[in-house]
Specification:
By secondary structure, this protein is of the alpha+beta class. Strands 7-8-9-10-11-1-2-3-4-5-6-12 form a 12-stranded mixed β-sheet.
Length: 264
């Protein structure tokens, strides 16, 4: 699976942490970070975030995904809809991208769909008229969408605080939790010996204080690519129709199946 495709897909899964309908703050990710004078406050924020995300059962809302490559002076902006449903031991996730805007070109209709059912990640590309199915787990051992994301990307709020501290230097940016701003910003800088040192430089989260869930997530890769996700107009823990997660392959589309790699 193409590295940038899986990173983009994984980043969408990561953004499922950010269920909120509030506006994201617009502070530049290259702004100056200051270290909080209360290191225990960061741990309190992480624990509360983990508690809130654990309560998530379902989600429906708009998604905006911006992938930038500054070295190439190029960027791709997609908009669509995201659905998530959690069950006892598995979860379903669906992202329907509907439009695409590349660089200064006009926005156009561009349909791509990603569906994950705990075992298979299905990618349907309506432009190329092709379907690719990537097996992510054994049928009798389905994985949660967040677990799939965790294999490729650190997930704040679902990882233990002590684990995050092993891999990152974590700072509270520009404010105290009690200040009037509606957001809390955390900046995670990858440590030199981190398991993520070959992939990412830093990750930023803007947490909505009202919902105590991230409103925006931005990551900078070692290649200086920037992945940014916003989730808007969310409906949280509302009943979803099971048909939302059905995989329907249009007639005439090519199909490729990539089975799970066997462990040595």
């Amino acid at each position: 699976m193409d590295k940038k495709i899986i990173k983009g897909t994984v980043f969408v899964l990561l953004a499922m942490l950010g269920i909120c309908g509030a506006k994201c703050c617009t502070k530049d990710i290259n702004s100056q970070y200051r270290e909080t004078v209360k290191p225990d406050l960061v741990e309190t924020i992480l624990k509360k975030l983990k508690q809130k995300t654990a309560e998530l059962k379902s989600y429906q809302g708009q998604i905006e995904y911006l992938f930038s490559q500054p070295l190439l002076e190029s960027q791709t902006f997609r908009k669509g809809v995201l659905y998530y449903q959690k069950f006892d031991k598995k979860s379903n996730l669906r992202i329907n991208f509907q439009t695409l805007k590349q660089d200064d070109e006009p926005e156009e209709k561009y349909i791509e769909q990603y569906i994950f059912d705990g075992t298979w990640l299905t990618h349907i590309d309506y432009q190329l008229k092709e379907v690719k199915r990537y097996q992510q787990a054994e049928p009798n051992e389905p994985v949660d969408a967040f677990d799939l994301a965790r294999r490729n990307f650190p997930i704040i709020g679902f990882s233990e605080t002590e684990d995050l501290k092993k891999e990152f230097e974590i700072k509270l940016v520009g404010q105290e939790e009690t200040e009037p701003s509606p957001f809390i910003q955390l900046h995670l800088k990858v440590k030199p010996d981190s398991i993520y040192k070959d992939d990412y430089i830093s990750i930023d989260f803007w947490i909505d204080k009202k919902l105590y869930l991230p409103a925006k997530v931005v990551a900078v890769s070692t290649e200086e690519d920037i992945y940014e996700i916003k989730l808007l107009k969310a409906k949280v823990n509302k009943k979803l129709d099971k048909k939302v997660f059905e995989v329907k392959i249009p007639k005439g589309f090519g199909k490729e199946i990539i089975p799970l790699k066997k462990k040595d």
